[in-house]
Design a protein that fits this description.
This protein has 203 residues and is α/β, with parallel strands linked by helices. 54% of the residues lie in helices and 15% in strands. It contains 10 helices and 7 strands.
Length: 203
């Protein structure tokens, strides 16, 4: 048996409940590498992505030394080229920091929380297993509106930018369907069963 940690790529659409599953996996002993958290750190004041973003998008993209997220969200959703330029800055930096965190992990299982795992095309080769958290689009919209105060149209715009559910499922080694009818206890049970199937042999 290899001493290398099992690398799980965790993904799902906005509002799918991916963060809840990540927390459950950490509870079983996994180390979490959260690429959204890495992206936020890179785009905060003093972050490594700030100057490249300023050079590419100008001062309007920066507010109080950090990325102006509302400005960039609106720009990226309306301009495919702007979205690609931003990703070209962020994705390599995210990848470097994610690998640094993974190498520092002492756990036998490392979970990479990657919202755009399918869309990026690069992450599939970096992980041993892909776990997709899936739910109906209507559930995604309800959850995000409730937690963020965004309009339904804004949430739907994000969903439309992400990979279709079928595309995510086609890349999965396992899928947890986390729709409204699944209780937290049932979700925990599903994650625990998968941990035994994947994780126990590595811990």
């Amino acid at each position: 048996m290899s001493n290398a940690p099992l690398r799980i790529g965790l993904t799902g659409g906005i509002g799918s409940g991916k963060s809840s599953v990540a927390a459950l996996l950490v509870g079983h002993g996994a180390t979490l590498v959260d690429t959204d958290a890495i992206a936020r750190a890179l785009t905060q004041t003093g972050g490594a992505a700030i100057e490249p973003i300023r050079q590419s998008f100008g001062d309007a993209a920066i507010s109080a030394g950090a990325l102006d997220r509302a400005y960039m969200r609106q720009l990226a959703f309306g301009d495919g080229d702007a979205k690609r330029r931003l990703e070209a800055i962020l994705h390599p930096l995210i990848g470097i920091e994610a690998e640094r965190q993974a190498r520092a992990a002492a756990a036998g299982v490392v979970v990479f929380d990657v919202p755009l795992l399918v869309e990026s095309g690069r992450w599939r080769q970096k992980v041993d297993r892909v776990l997709v958290i899936d739910c109906n689009e209507s559930t995604q919209v309800e959850r995000v509106v409730a937690r963020s105060g965004w309009s339904r149209e804004a949430v739907q715009a994000v969903i439309d930018q992400q990979a279709p559910r079928a595309a995510r499922r086609s890349c999965a080694d396992a899928v947890i369907f986390n729709d409204g009818g699944l209780s937290r206890a049932q979700l925990a049970q599903a994650v625990g069963a998968l941990w035994q199937h994947w994780g126990a042999v590595h811990t």
